Amino acid sequence: MACGGLMSAPVCLIENDENGKLRVRKEAKDILDGINQPVVVVSVVGLYRTGKSYLMNRLAGQQSGFALGSTIESKTKGIWMWCVPHPKKEGHTLVLLDTEGLGDVRKGDEKHDTWIFCLAVLLSSTLVYNSLGVIDNTALEKLHYITELTENIRVKAEAGQHEDESADFMRVFPSFVWAVRDFTLQLKKEDEPITSDDYLEGALELKQGSSPQTEQYNLPRSCLRNFFAVRKCFVFQRPANTEDMWKMEELTETELDSKFLEQANSFCRYIYNNSETKTLSGGRTITGTALGNLAEVYVEAIRTGNVPCLENAVVSLAKIQNVHAVEEALQFYMTELFNLVQLPINPAELSKIHTVAEKKAIDIFITVSFNDNDQIYQKDLMGKIHEEYQQMCQQNYEASQLQCEKVLCDVFDRLEKVISDGSYLKPGGSQKYTDMLRQLSEEYRARTHSQIMSEEVLSKFLKTKEDIGNIILQADESLSSAEQEKEVEKMKTEILKQQKRSLKEQNRLQEQVFKDMQITYDENVNQIIHQMEREQDRMRRDHQRVLEAKLRENQALLKMGFQWKAAQMQREIDSLKAEMDKEKSSQPSKLGRALNCIGMATTLLAPGFTPKLIGVVMACGGLMSAPVCLIENDDNGKLHVRKEASTSFALGSTIESKTKGIWMWCVPHPYKEGHTLVLLDTEGLGDVRKGDEKHDTWIFCLAVLLSSTLVYNSLGVIDNTALEKLHYITELTENIRVKAEVSQDEDKSADFMRVFPSFVWAVRDFTLELKIGNKQITSDEYLESALTLKSGCSPQTEQYNLPRRCLRHFFAVRKCFVFPRPASTQNMRRMEQLTEKELDSEFLEQANTFCHYIFDSADPKTISGGRIITGTALGNLAEVYVEAIRSGKVPCLENAVVSLAKIQNVRAVEEALQIYMTEMFSMTQLPMCPEELSNIHKVAEQKAVEVFITMSFNDNDQIYQRELMGKMFDEYQQMCQQNQEESAKQCEAVLHEVFDTLEQGVFHGSYLRPGGYRQYKDTLTQLTNDYRARTHSQIMSEEVLRKFLKKKKDIGNMILQADQSLNAAEQEKEVQRLKNEILEQQQRGLEEQNRLQEQLFKDMQRSHKEHVNQIIHQMEREQERMRRDNERVLEAKLREKDALLQKDLQEQAFRMQSQIDRLRSEMHKEEKSKPSTFERIADGIGAAAELVLPGFVMKWFK
User: Fold this and answer.
1) Closest CA to 137 of 230, 48, 227, 214
2) What does pTM read for this prediction?
3) Tens digits of per-residue pLDDT, 974-989?
């Protein structure tokens, strides 16, 4: 049930947090989460103190609710919400949104008003704009928020250059109602009466001309005409006199102006009758739950500085809603099933309950789900419902079996007692036994005829009595050999008949399962067809609404004399019609695709599908024979990470730039074993023919973000011009964020220093001497001298210092190499063909020194927290950064770490588990000794954990490592189970072979004579010893023997009863001895199982220890790297402080000292937190161990 209108008063939906940022209030979100009905959303916007809230109260059918103000102060803050049952549309909820008054000068931040207006547009199906007086140019200028909608709202993540955006906006924007309050004019034009709608459309007429003033005049009018397909106007007289206006909430209807009351009632009727259900693109209806999620998606985009995008919102909302839809539908199905089912139950009745529950669950899913175009989530729900139903069927079988076994024990108790006292071991006993067995079987069937497992349980019981019946037959001296043979054949026929009955019973159950599958398929298909038809109808209506609006606008433009605008509008109309035709023609294929998806899901759920397949994935390593393009521009000029390979690093001999985008070459590191050297060659910066300088900025930023050493290559000298060309350095803080949110006083430079690469300036074609005065200097001193700051605070000095300060503050390690010209001008054109002998010897020496420095000093790539990056992670990182740039965001390292962690850790679990399973399957040959299996598990687990630790990333709470532990333990349990089953099979094969002579003797009645019992016992003992000798290495030896001896208990007892050489006392003594032997065998079986259980616990303890050790070692390595990073930054800041003091820049040195103190404090805090971190890890892994251990019992132990 929806919560409907059980809200006694409005609540705040969107408010400002303590930092002044918008947020969705949990109380309101919880209310919306409880509304599963479609919602009609009406929001009111307008300047403050214009009486918006009163109209909302009227729509809620209340006198008070939303706060009304009678002073100059704005009453409503943020966006308030009131959910009430829709008075006209049953099964719908009317959501009223009252927004903060716009234009309150005391707010200071006008952007806040813009976002409130945008959210009202985005969340509503009808937007009411409330204003005072008249609709004139001033009123329209005050509605400037309309003109900013295209800047602050995007319909599509990426729009084509010539795409008609107005049609997109019209489809998703609400209908627009202008409520003009305190209206005192007559609705006349040229002495002819006009409607309020005519009044609005007249106010929206465009002016001819192209002057700035005309453009300014037309802009809000064009926006209203182009964005809102449905426009309506209501004019209201003043509701009461000035004095009464102060107490509007207290006035009764009789105290209100009758004309105002009539207009207010007309307004409410229009809203109730004409406001559509809230939908998103594609005509998808929104429920209260979806509206709450949608509000959170939009507000989060605004909080993070992004432009709300409806297409992205649909994707985000779809994920949230569909996961929620599956959970809610499954929960409903399970609750319905558990409430209505009382096991055991007739399968047909269970099937009916399942069908009804499934239908209702699918109804809920269809209602709550959103944009599940490929039926991914519906297939998931189908699978989960099928699993739950299968489990319920299984529980039904088991419950029926238990009841049947209980009845069987009760009915056949008389037979068991007669067998025990040997009454059938006399002439005529066989006939009596057969008659009693038949009579009791009929009695059993009469009492269990409604049970689904009746024949199956009876079949198993009669099978166990086969040997006993045979013994009784052999002992019956009243029958001749021929008669005995005839009776044996009759017994076999009865057994076959009983097996046939049981098989028939099982076939009926199987047929029911397939019928249920067919019903499920039909129900899902019907639901999809109805849902698609509803959505397509809504889409068609949306298209029709937009088309009609554009046709009206076309006529209006022609009437006003805007011929060229009318022609443009006609093109938009033609484009829209073509789109509608295309949509219509694609409907059958969409439906077919949906049905194929559901059909495929049904096939997967049907019995007999294949279990897991094990595959091995090999890494490609660094065996690249040539570079490949890593990042390039797509067809729209946007950067993207390229998947396929290309040729090699190109050297250019013309004025044209050769390298485009970023190229990559991966080679084995020449000095660091087990490392790969990744070389990134970037597109040349400053090529004027590119036109888009921002492209160069992003290429530079990506080089900084992806590298552990950044080489900046320039020609000539390092002078002011060279540093000004390196302006990209000064833009790093605008284009890269280390943290998602930075406090005002936080030292950003320390954050950048930790994560930025070391910086190497390579100065090519250097012709100067490295001297200052007459003193010889190094290339590093040359660089540091060029980075010396000037004293002063003039704009010129600031401009001079800016790139220098950025290099000093962002790069803790700076290095410089100067290279003479490598060859003559003529030879430079064929650099790729020159041998080392043809190169300048000094250049070659410098190049070798440069290479040695890079090989020796370039550290492995890390990101915040000292976490080392593998090649896999680098590829994922590139995609995360490029995706941020493509979507118009600023790459943020903290967000990248979060995104990368999800990608890497999921993959780390998969790959580690794959290694573990491959290792286990390749090394084990079942059955085998548990200790050997444990050792293989230990080695495989260790390798898997090492793979996980290497690949995983930022798994601070060990969520993914715990997941891996659980999955490996599950696989190990399965392997142990398979080992026991294989051992049991081998033991059973040996047992049948060894005890065959005993079985033959029993069958032929060899032991049914005086002294036969002793012979039977001696044979049993001898064969038991033979069996143990042949199966002593098998883990299921005693358990299989125990089950066999238990079956032979009744046979032994009958042979004992038939042995006339023993008196009653001797027989009693033998019975007691038999009981003791059975107890001893049970003890042996129990000890055998306890050893297996102890081994499992040992494995778990060792596994826990291994995981903790691996994490601690990993953390120690990471903390050591973090410590080195912090030390590196600290040393750089200390050097910088000394340099500032030397240059007498006291104020800057003082600020640097503050940063140093803060950094030391951070390092001290980090050092102190180490023990607690380790404890938390041990606790986390310990908790995982506890989760997988308690109550674990193998199937064989049940």
Assistant:
1) 214
2) 0.50
3) 889 899 999 999 999 9
Q: Identify the H or E element spanning 1097.
A: helix 1064-1142
Q: Give the span between the Cα atoms of 678 and 707, in whole angstroms.
A: 9
92 pLDDT exceeds 90? yes
Burial class (CB in 10 A: 0-12, 13-18, 19+), 448: buried
Q: What's the token pair of residue 344? A: 């055991």
Which ranges of 34-136 does DSSP label H, i.e. alpha helix? 52-59, 110-123
Nearest by Cα to 831 from 843, 849, 845: 843
Amino acid at 1139: A
Helices (H), 228-346: 242-245, 258-274, 288-303, 310-340
Question: CA-based angle 137:141:145, to the nearest 5?
Answer: 145
255-303 per-position pLDDT tens digit: 888 898 999 999 999 999 999 999 887 667 888 988 998 899 888 888 8
Sheet with 628-633, side-by-side order of all strands? 639-641, 628-633, 662-668, 676-682
What is the distance between the alpha carbons of residues 1099 and 942, in angstroms, rounded to a whole number? 12
DSSP-derived 3-state class of residue 422:
coil
Residue 257: CB atoms within 10 Å: 16
How many angstroms separate the Cα of 898 from the Cα of each of 301, 702, 905, 908, 960? 17, 18, 10, 15, 14
Q: Is the torsion defined by CA of 1138, 1140, 1145, 1146 positive or negative?
A: negative
**DSSP symbol at 731:** G
Q: Comparing C-alpha atoms, which of 344, 354, 340 is closest to residue 389?
A: 354
Tell me the CA distances in angstroms from 1076 to 519, 679, 1055, 1081, one per residue in order. 56, 78, 18, 9
Largest CA distance in the chain: 134
Angstrom distance (rounded) from CA 977 to CA 114: 64
pLDDT tens for 828-865 read: 778 878 888 888 899 999 999 999 999 999 989 887 66
pLDDT of residue 1191: 39
Residue 832, burial from CB neighbour count under 10 angstroms (0-12, 13-18, 19+): exposed
Cβ proximity of 787 and 1159 under 8 Å: no
pLDDT at 741: 58
Alpha-carbon dihedral 630, 633, 639, 645, rounded to 10 degrees:
-20
Under DSSP, the state recorded for 235 is: E
Least confidently predicted of 747-761, 788-802, 945-959, 1174-1188: 1174-1188
